[in-house]
Amino acid sequence: MNQNILVLQQTEMAELGTAQAALLPLGTPIAHFRTAQDQTATDSGTKIGIWESSPGQFRRAVAEREFSHILQGWCVFTPDEGAAITLHAGDAVFFPAHTQGVWDIKADFRKTYCIF
Prior knowledge:
The two termini are 19 Å apart. 0% of the residues lie in helices and 51% in strands. It is mainly β. It contains no helices and eight strands. This is Cupin domain-containing protein.
């Protein structure tokens, strides 16, 4: 059996790639995001990495399940079906598959993610 062990290193200070505008922005300011250490396990398709966003609002664009650990900043995520959830550095969150909603990034925000 092939085991793909994926590791993220020094997540709080890792250098990130070039900033890109949010895919589905809502109003201004338009949030910009950057990623680092993006990896995919060849045996399962699981993806991990570091993601960072500047303040702004945008729709969530991930269809798969996601587990994230918040490293920096804070935000409010409002699912299309449910109450708003406030997330701060130190929190962890799980999104079931097909979770739709709006990210409202309040302060520079960094998280690690596992999409599966």
